[in-house]
Every structure is written in C-alpha cells, then in structure tokens.
Specification:
single chain; rod-shaped; Serine Threonine Protein Phosphatase 5, Tetratricopeptide repeat; mainly alpha; Tetratricopeptide repeat protein
Length: 619
C-alpha cells in the first residue's frame, strides 16, 4: 500500500497525459478508491484513450449503471478494443434483447473474436435462425473453442441430427469441455453403454461436476454398490446438490446411521425437498421423537403430501387424540390413501364402534389386513357364515392364521372334515397349532398313524401336549415302550402330570415296581390324587404279597387277615390323555396399531439428472 501511495505522490505534478491519468486510475482502482479512479479514467478517456474508456465501462457495469457502461464500451470499441463490442453484446443478451446483441457480437465476430462467434451462434439459436447459428458456431468450433462444440451439440440435438450432435460432443469432450462430457455421458447411458457413461462420469466426479457425481452415484445405487454410491453422492452433496443430499441421507438412514442421515436430510429440507422432510419425519417417528416427527409430517401435509397426512394421523391416534387423527385420516382418504381406510377402521374399533369400523374395512376389502378384521368382527357378531367368507379371502391371500380361524369355527360347529381341510392349509403355512389340532382330531378318530405324524412336528418343537400324546401313541398303539418312555420323559420334565402318571402305569405293566413307585411319588408331591391312589394301590399290593408269603408259612393270623383283604382290580392299560393345550402365539396382526407408510413410490430411473438443453454463452 505504501508503494502505491508513493507512486501516486511521484506522478502528481506530471503534465497531463492520458497514459499518466490511466495509470493513476489503475492505482486508485487497486486500492479501492473507485471515485478517484473514475475521475482519472475520465480525463484520459476524453483524450480518446481506449483503455481508460474500457476501464470506465467495466466499472459502470459492475455498478449496474448499464447506460454509462454501454456508452463507454461503445467509445472503447470505436477506438479499437474489440472486447468492448463483445461486452455490449453480453449486456443485451443478459436482458434477452437478442436482436440488439446480434449487432455487437457480429462486429467482434467478424474480427475473429471466438467468444463473440460462439455467442452470436447462441443468439441466432434463441431467435430460431438455425442456419446462421450453425454457421457461427462451426466457425468458432473450427478454431477449437470447446464451448462452441457443446453448443453445436445442443443445436443438432434440437434439429434431431443425433449423429452430428454426438460428433461435436465428442470433439468438445476431447478438449475437456465439461458440459460436452456430461451430455456425452447421458447419450451413452441412454444407449445402454454404461461402461462408457461411467468413464465420463468418473472424470466429472474428479472435477466436481455435481450432476455427474449424482448420476454415477445413482448408477452405483441401482447396481447395489452402496459404498461407491455413498462416495459419489458425498462429493456433490457437500457442494449443495439437493438430490445427492437426499440419496446420501437415505443410505445413512438404511444403515441406521441416523446422525448423518438427519444432517443430510436437513440440508435437502432447507431447499424444500419434500421427500427428505417425509423420511426425516419417519426417522424421528421410529426414534420416538414424536414432536419432531409431527413437525416434519406437518410440513409435508402443508405441501399436500398424502402419505404424510396418514402418518400424522397415526401419531395423533397413538396419543389418543382421536378427533385430530380422524381429521387427517379423512383428508388422506379423500386424496386416495388406501392405508387410511384400515387405520380409520382400527380407530373406530378401538373406540368400540364396530359398525363404523366395519364400514371402513369394507372400503378396503382387497387388503388382507382388512379381510382379517372384517372376519373378526363378524365372528364377534356370531355371524359365522360371513366370518368364514372373509377369513377365506384372507386365507387365499396367504394368511395362515385365517385358515386356522376358519378351521376353529368349523370345529366349534362340529364339522370336522371342513376343519381338517383348513387346518391342513394352515399347517402348510407353518401354523404350529394346526399340527396340534390335526394330531388331536386323528387321535380322536383312532387314526394313530396320521395322529403321530402331525404330533411329531410340534413335539420336536417342545410342545408339551404333543410330546405327551406321542408317548401315549407309542404306549397304547405301537407298544414301543422305549419310544413311549422317551416322549413321556420330555413332557414329564415340564411337570405334565398325565405323563408322570402314565410312566408309573407303564412301569407297573412292565413289573418295574420300584420305577413305578418313583413316578407315583413324584405325582404325589405335585398333589395329584390319581398318583396318590396308585401309590396306595402299589403299597396295598405289596402288603397282599407279604401277607400271602406269611400265610404260606402259617404265621400267626396271616391267613385270616389275607382272606379279609379285598382284591382291588386296577386297569393298568387305562392311560391318561393330557389336557388339550395349544402353543401361545402372539399374532402382531391382531394388534390395532396405526399403519405408517414408510416407503414412497420412487422411480429411480426418473431421478437421473437429464442432459443440458440450453446453450451456453461465453462471458
């Protein structure tokens, strides 16, 4: 700064000379004294010193004083500065005065000004004079101006001459023109030449082209190469590209990296990206930050997003603010949200209004969830014919529990054949209780082979009742006592009193009295009267045997006592059947909780950034 001041002091008293005044102006401009610079430039400009005229024009342009700028650019051009004509052309172009900019661009273009030639071509394109546009753009392109190659690509695309467009994009790409590389990548991608497209996108990623980074990120995401997608999205996201911020946040969200997901969703939200707001609402909902979830859902609702209306209603439903929930569910229904029919049905059901609940379920009757709930209500109304109809619909849609419920209704109605049919369907969908029911039905029918086959599945899954029944089948039907003991022991370990009793009885039949005594004692400890009775009988039998031995030896009055002891007839083959017991299955589908819409229908292919279609002027 001191050097500049010193230079100014030295030239203060030098005679008036435009070069000297221009030098002073340059020095004042460098130190930010623009008014002083204008004064000096004007003195020099009045001597028709072109450089000062051009400097004045630039200052007035920066000050947005366009009339003064045009005046001085015009004078500078008359005094030989070709760039001044180019700059006036740009001024008119920027206000869409294409007819006026043609005059000035052409003056510079005819002097060989490449940028003016390009901009003249762009202006003619704007005025739909494609022949003249082509003439000037080719002239600039032939002189290897990269941006002219790009603009020729745009021109030929508009004229449906894809081959020429490709040729000029290729030429500009070789000269490293960024926009040519981008549009060329789009062409390759549309032609299914993904390898070539990726190569170009990688270059664009390297130089930080936001659209190029996004598109290659999306290709990687589509190909399930998520780590690479993240890398490409991150570069453009950090430069402010909204869609990149959204997709990057979505990747973090799926990985449950919620801190980073929130950061990038919020960045996209700041630019009013509605899907980011919705997913952020879902994330906060999942994390139980309900007020924040409400905030973002509300933003989406204000933008008319149907799914957000359903989800906001769900939050009010869970808070038992039923009037607000009804309001938003009804809005969502009016906008075509099918999930809200079931949700509103659930709300009325929870309020005990089954008739209204039924009416909403019936309006969404192609939904499996609604079919089940319609069946439930009709069953509660004891309208079993209608219940069966709706459970059958749900069963045909793949719900095993509905098949099971139909079978149960038929069982209660005494229709075992229909019950078996639907238990079979439920069994084929791995409903464990269907196996148990089928085992019981076939056992009651005396079809022990079929019964055994069905009991084996739940027995191997540690179902106590089935273990006992397998033991019983091996005991009374097959007489395979080792297998009987094996299964009885399993259920005995879970204190199944019938298994304990049957083990005692089996050992009596096998004349293993000490083992029998052990099991009956165990039953007695569990306060079972049947085991207590059998233990007493066993001791009584032992007493008879002992008195019989004494009587054989004429010991005292043993014969007399023996003759008075009654003979107790016990049926050692009367084994016990355990109490019928099913597996307790928690069926989450029966819980009346709101259905939240977590996914949005998004067409990944439609997300790609498209080709650039506007020509670009050179500044």
């Amino acid at each position: 700064m001191s050097d500049i001041k010193s230079s100014l002091d030295k030239i203060k008293n030098i005679p008036k000379d435009p070069i000297i005044h221009h030098t002073k102006g340059t020095l004042f401009e460098k130190i930010g004294k623009i008014d002083n610079a204008i004064k000096q430039y004007k003195i020099a400009a009045e001597y028709d010193y072109a450089k000062s005229q051009y400097a004045l024009a630039n200052i007035y342009y920066d000050k947005r004083k366009y009339s003064e700028a045009e005046e001085w650019y015009s004078r500078a051009y008359k005094n030989g500065i070709i760039d001044a004509a180019f700059d006036i052309g740009n001024m008119y172009f920027n206000i869409d005065a294409y007819e006026h900019c043609l005059y000035w661009y052409e003056k510079a273009a005819k002097e060989g000004h490449l940028k003016a030639q390009n901009n003249l071509g762009v202006s003619y394109f704007k005025l739909k004079n494609y022949k003249k546009s082509e003439k000037w753009l080719i002239e600039a392109s032939d002189s290897n101006l990269p941006i002219a190659c790009f603009n020729l690509g745009i021109l030929y695309t508009a004229l449906k001459d894809e081959e020429s467009a490709f040729r000029y994009y290729k030429k500009g790409s070789i000269m490293l023109e960024e926009n040519c590389k981008y549009n060329l990548a789009i062409i390759n991608q549309n032609n299914k030449e993904e390898k070539d497209a990726i190569s170009l996108y990688k270059y664009l990623h390297k130089i930080g082209n936001e659209k190029g980074c996004f598109n290659i990120g999306l290709i990687m995401e589509k190909n399930n190469n998520i780590d690479e997608a993240e890398r490409y999205y991150k570069k453009s996201a950090d430069k402010g590209h909204t869609k990149s911020q959204y997709r990057l946040a979505y990747i973090y969200d799926k990985r449950e990296n919620y801190e980073d997901a929130i950061e990038y969703y919020k960045k996209a939200c700041d630019k009013d990206h509605i899907h980011s707001k919705f997913r952020l609402g879902n994330l906060y909902n999942k994390e139980n930050e309900i007020e924040k979830a409400k905030e973002y859902y509300t933003m989406c609702v204000e933008s008319g997003m149907v799914e957000a209306k359903n989800n906001l209603a769900g939050l009010y439903f869970e808070e038992e603010n039923y009037e607000q929930a009804k309001t938003y569910y009804m809005q969502a229904i009016e906008n075509g949200c099918r999930e809200s029919f079931e949700n509103l049905g659930d709300l009325y059901y929870k309020l005990g209004d089954k008739e209204n609940a039924l009416s909403f379920y019936l309006r969404q009757s192609d939904s499996v969830g609604c079919q089940i709930k319609i069946g439930n209500i009709y069953e509660e109304f004891e309208n079993y014919d209608e219940a069966i109809i709706w459970y059958k619909k749900a069963s045909e849609s793949g719900d095993s529990n509905s098949s099971y419920k139909i079978a149960q209704i038929y069982m209660d109605l005494g229709n075992n054949e229909q019950a078996k049919k639907y238990f079979e369907i439920a069994k084929n969908k791995n409903n464990i209780n269907a196996y148990i029911y089928l085992g019981k039905i076939y056992f009651d029918e005396g079809k022990y082979e079929e019964s055994k086959r069905y009991f084996e599945i739940p027995a191997n899954d540690a179902n106590t009742y089935s273990e006992h029944m397998l033991g019983l089948i091996y005991d009374i039907h097959y007489k395979e006592y080792d297998n009987a003991k094996y299964w009885y022991e399993k259920s005995r370990s879970k204190k199944c009193i019938e298994s304990i009793y049957n083990l005692g009885l089996l050992n009596l039949r096998l004349k293993e009295y000490n083992e029998a005594e052990k099991y009956f004692k165990e039953g007695l400890e569990l306060k079972d009267s049947r085991c207590e009775y059998m233990l007493a009988w066993l001791y009584y039998k032992k007493s008879i045997d002992m008195y019989s031995s004494l009587a054989d030896n004429d010991y005292e009055d043993s014969k007399d006592i023996l003759s008075k002891m009654p003979n107790l007839n016990i049926d050692l083959h009367k084994s016990l059947i355990a109490k019928f017991k099913l597996e307790e299955i928690i069926n989450e589908d029966d819980e009346y909780v709101p259905i939240y819409i977590l996914q949005i229908n998004e067409d990944i292919d439609s997300m790609f950034e498209d080709s650039i279609t506007d020509m670009i002027i050179d500044k």
